[in-house]
Amino acid sequence: MMTTQLLFLPVVAYMLGSVPWGIILTRIFKSQDIRQKGSGNIGATNVTRVAGPLAGALTLAADMLKGAVPVYLAFTIADSNSAQGEFYISFVAFSAFAGHLYPLFTKFKNGGKGVATAAGGFLVISPAAFSIAILVFIIFICCFNRASVASLAAAASLPLAVWKATGSEIMTGCAVLTAIFIYIRHKDNIKRIFSGTEPVIWQR
Hints:
Elements: H1 3-18, H2 21-30, H3 44-51, H4 53-77, H5 83-101, H6 115-125, H7 127-144, H8 147-166, H9 169-185, H10 187-195
Helix pairs in contact: 1-4, 1-5, 2-3, 2-4, 3-4, 4-5, 4-6, 5-6, 5-9, 6-7, 6-9, 7-8, 8-9
């Protein structure tokens, strides 16, 4: 691999991760600032509440692509069967994830919780691990009707799923670090969960 390629792609991944699609799409659909509405989060769940299901679905897809596209490109230039290649791919995935959490284009503020961007990255790293995490997400959504609970459960399951699917210590380490940051970004949700004030997705 060329040194320029090695340096260029993580930067591109971070820049892609920094694109605040929740803000952009809410302005297009509702002419509102998502940061001033609902929970204030720029992710798909809050966009759905504020701007509707189509805007929410587009935000989810765009945020996943922010993770998936650079990781796919990393696989094309790195040897995924070597430790160096695994580290590089993991670094690119985490760069996109970090961009979503701390976006350059909003002065490192008002980032999302990173679930969709992480999901996109790990979909490419390991479709099997992604499938397990999504299954956990769906089960917890159905049982608890709260996106935050499902996201936290899926994040907790991700490192074990990656380990079982890939056997890679490096990629599992990336999954652990990703899960830790997802939990940090959900700290307010965790407080509301324990206090019983976390909002539901749909009323029963």
